[in-house]
Fold this sequence. Notes:
Number of domains: 2
Number of helices: 5
Mean pLDDT: 82
Helix content: 55-70%
Amino acid sequence: MSMIQLCGLLLVFFGEKVFRILGFGQVPSWYGSVQKNGMQLAIFVYLLLPNIISKYMVTGAFEIILDGETIFSKLETGRLPQFDDLVPPLVNAGLTQATQ
C-alpha cells in the first residue's frame, strides 16, 4: 500500500481525529463531502488509485522542468541525467555555485 493510499484511507475513516492530531481547531469545510461519500472515496483510493499511479510509474518518466522549460527528459533521451545535462541549464537560469 502506498503512502497516498494510506493517507487517503486514514482521511476517510479517521479524518476528524487526524485533523485534531494535526492541530486543526476545526475540520475543513471540504471534509463534509468526504464523509458523505466515504465508501466511494475509500474504494477509489484502495482499488482505482493504484492503477492510475502505476501508469505513470511504468513509463519511466523522469522530467526536470524549470520555469516551464524542460531541462532534461528521460523519455526523450532514454537515460538518466548526468552532470553535464543539468549544470549548464541551471547556471544559465541563474544558479550559482556555493563557495567553500
